[in-house]
């Protein structure tokens, strides 16, 4: 199937001011500012098919927002090409806007002083949403997102969680084919995050809306997005199924054995000792195809085993290990 979103060797370069130290430096900066180029997005390519839900993940400054801005037509790439629904988003901003929904977690698109229902009405007019489509969406989304009790309240009186639910509902009023969300759960409490995640999964599943969301929060990805695009310092690190992340980054499963008494040194073929004290011993598995039964069968016969726990590394752990390694190798260089 042809992708509905694609990025081909996309790079975005910003020029950032270099600040010189001291008073003299500040005066020089005023008289003759010096800038340096920053590759916010650096040669990134991907293709997304209709109906996918993709998480775009990376640490601060990785270039996530810049990519969303290019896909939504706010910015143009410095080089390379982005295509959304067969169009260049920046050259066709109006047509593009009619087909997509956009939610920026840190910037509201609702009218602050007006009741929420008025924001929806203004959105209907701006997007020229046919009345029957609007009436259906307003009813469905109000129900799905639990907005009824505060529809007539001015937006400035809503809690952050209520506002985010309303933002997402509004972004869907014109039946967009694609929903872009930049940090949709940022600042929300656990309950509100859960509501937003469940809702986005449901919209993706039931309406087939393609979803791309940027986030710092791995749980957003685990619960909404089967596919993950990971970026760091503008570059693409990983693009694939969340389930393949472990293989790609070589994260290993951990086996913890609990003995009835202090076991001394424990040798386990196919695993590497990795700490443990008292009655506990921990191992990193070599992932050489041995089953747990085979591994344990190789234990000394007199080992008095009481319990066995196997930990699959979560994506959080995998990514933390990766970034940690990068910081360490960066320091060593
Ligand atoms: N308008 C701009 N002018 C200059 N530099 C910019 C501009 N916008 C972003 N940058 C720089 O580009 C890089 C990527 O920024 P971007 O906001 O895309 O990252 P991000 O992954 O969304 O980060 P965060 O999670 O902190 O929002 C950063 O170094 C940032 O300082």
Query: Helicity range of the residues?
Result: 25-40%
Hetero ligands: adenosine-5'-triphosphate
Largest β-sheet summary = 6 strands, mixed
**Global mean pLDDT:** 88
Overall number of domains = 2
Q: What would your notes on this structure say?
A:
The chain has helices spanning 22-31, 64-71, 93-99, 116-126, 131-145, 160-171, 190-207, 218-224, 245-248, 292-297, 315-332, and strands at 5-18, 34-48, 53-57, 79-84, 100-104, 178-182, 210-215, 227-232, 235-241, 254-259, 271-273, 280-285, 305-311. The chain has 333 residues and is α/β, with parallel strands linked by helices. The protein folds into two domains: 50-79 and 87-247, 3-Layer(aba) Sandwich (Rossmann fold), CATH 3.40.50; 252-312. A six-stranded mixed sheet has the order 5-6-7-3-8-9, with helices on both faces. Strands 11-12-10-13 form a four-stranded antiparallel sheet, with no helix packed on it. Strands 2-1-4 form a three-stranded antiparallel sheet. The longest helix is centred in the middle third of the chain and has 18 residues, at 190-207. The chain is globular, with a radius of gyration of 25 Å. The structure holds adenosine-5'-triphosphate (ATP). Adenosine-5'-triphosphate binds at residues 14, 16, 38, 40, 58, 60-66.
